Each structure stands twice: as structure tokens, then as C-alpha cells.
Amino acid sequence: MSAADDAQTARLELLRRLNRGFAEMVPHNRALGMELVSLDDADAVMRLPYAPHLVGNPDTGVLHGGAVSSLMDACCGAAVFMALPEPVPIATLDLRIDYLKPAAPGRDVIAHACCYKVTRNVAFVRSVAFHDSEDDPIASAVGAFMLSTKLGHWQRGAGT
Amino acid sequence: MNIAERIAEARRTRDLAALTDAVPYAAFLGFSMTLLEGELVGKMRYADHLIGNPALPALHGGAIGALLESTAIFQILWDAETIVLPKTVNITVDYLRSGRPLDTFARGIITKHGRRVVNVRVEAWQEDRTRPIALANGHFLILPGDG
After folding, report:
1. CB 3.0-4.6 Å disulfide test: which of A85, A112, A124, B81 passes with A117?
2. Is B147 inside a domain boundary?
């Protein structure tokens, strides 16, 4: 097997493992039916399958903005993970989403996120959501994530 | 009933429950509008499927974002003169603290009500209102028909 094949196999294995972490172990991701489609350096693609319980406007069957924002938040987080030399806990600091056009009823939404800068404490991400092509986006987002966040700070009763 | 009729009905009866119940995603979130000490607030009832970080555990940022956005939309419906479902143009969410596995509340304040667009500020909290877990600022189109 060539080195390229090895790299591809390793990447598919990582994708499978991360999908288990992202989709199966995160209850909200599982409830939304989100899945990772592909991963690359500082880059992630995720899919949100269309589902009736995610509809925001019952007249039109268009997905709720909240479902799209959950997808973009998760996809941005995945891109941050792919930009880090080693996995550390991360937390969304802020996320701004522009809704460019309604998602088409009955169709899956794809999000593509890219982490374009990592500093010691903060990672910066941008993302687009679309059906077929990034050139025809449904939504775009920019966000920042804190790196190496402490686990369970509130559980120790110290507040934040 | 279509959504415009439901909005008209909810505004007439001052009861938003029939409206939130008609939105599938609101039901999925456990979202309702409720009066808390005489004030209209959005509420997201805690459920395990809202968890985004099982290690902490903490609510998913997307669920908190959806609570803030939904609260803003229903606050506009409550206050505005027009009977249309507001469309989100954009929303920025600042995450201040991790959301604990508890009921979460949100209060929307209309900062500017224009003819076409409304600017809304929303704050979310859990047990202690002086310790908000997230803030949002958004713009919403309120054009009849297709905006």
C-alpha cells in the first residue's frame, strides 16, 4: 500500500472515530441527526439530514434557523479540532450567522467550516451552509472558540 | 390554521402557546413562551437531548442559540403591529458560561423597531438572572409576503 493510501486509510479511520464522538456521544448532535462528511487540516464538512421535527415554519416546511445554527456551530467546532496539534477542550465564544436564503424543504443541509487562525487561547472560524454548492449558500457564519477550556468549572461551585 | 392565522389568534388571545406548539422545532427544543413575574420570557425545558458536552455536562451551543433566536421572534410577534412571521437576517450569539442541565430562560428586548427590520437583544440565564449564560443580538425582517 502506498503512503497516500495509508494517509487516506488513517483519515477515514479518524473520520469514523470522530463521527462516533460527534454524533453518537453528543446527545444534541444525535437528536439532530448530524454527521461528519469529511475532515481535512483545519477543515470540516458536516451534514444535517432534513427531518420534520426540525421545521421552523409549518406552512412551508422550511428548517428552523436554530437547526442550521446548531449544524454550523458543530461544524465550526470540528474545524477547530482539525486545526489543533492535539485535541483540547474547546468552547464557542461567539458565533454570528447570516441567513442568506431559506433552506429548501425536504433537502439536507451541508456545512463547510474552515479554521483560519489559531492563537494560544482563541481559534477563529468561518463557515458556509448550502445544499449543492458553496457558491449558492443558505447561510454563512463566523465565530471564535476558546481553547483548553476547563472541565466542570461550575461543578466545583466556583462559578466562572 | 396557517401560521398567519395562528399569529392573529395568539395576538388576540395573548396566548402564544398555540403558536409555539405549531412549530415542530420549538417542540423539539421544549420551547415555550411564559410569563415570569409578569414578564414575557422564552423557556427551554431541560431534556437530555439538548446536551452538547456530555463530559461537563453542558447544553449544546446550538440549542442555546435556538432558544435566543426563538425568543427574539416571539417577542417581535408579541410587540409588533404586523402579522407576519419574522425572518432572521442575522444573529450573533456570545456564549458567556456553559449551560448547565437545567431549564433555561431568555428575555428579548426590542432595541429598534423599524418599518422593515427589527433589532432585538436577548439574554439567557438559568438559576441566577444576574449571571447570564449567553447574549444575542439579531436583525429580523418583518415584511408581509416574501421578504
Report:
1. A124
2. no
Q: In this complex, do B62 and A66 lie within 8 Å of one another by their Cβ atoms?
A: yes
State the smallest CA–CA distance between residue A8 and chain B in angstroms: 29
User: Residue B127 domain-assigned?
Assistant: yes
Lowest-confidence segment of B11-15, B106-110, B129-133, B142-146 by average pLDDT? B142-146
**What sign does the dihedral B125-B33-B77-A140 (CA atoms) show?**
positive
Chain-centroid distance of CA A27 in Å reads: 14
Q: Supply the ipTM of this predicted assembly.
A: 0.90
pLDDT in tens, A50-103: 999 999 888 899 999 999 999 999 999 999 999 998 888 889 999 999 999 989
Is B105 part of a structural domain of the chain?
Answer: yes
Q: Which residues contact B67 (CB under 8 A, 6 or more apart)?
A: A66, B29, B31, B42, B44, B104, B106, B124
Q: Is residue B146 part of a domain?
A: no
Domain hosting residue B33, numbered range: 3-141
On chain B, the residues whose CB falls within 8 A of the CB of A153 are 98
CATH number at residue B16: 3.10.129.10
pLDDT tens digits for B5-20? 777 787 788 777 777 8
Total domains, chain B: 1
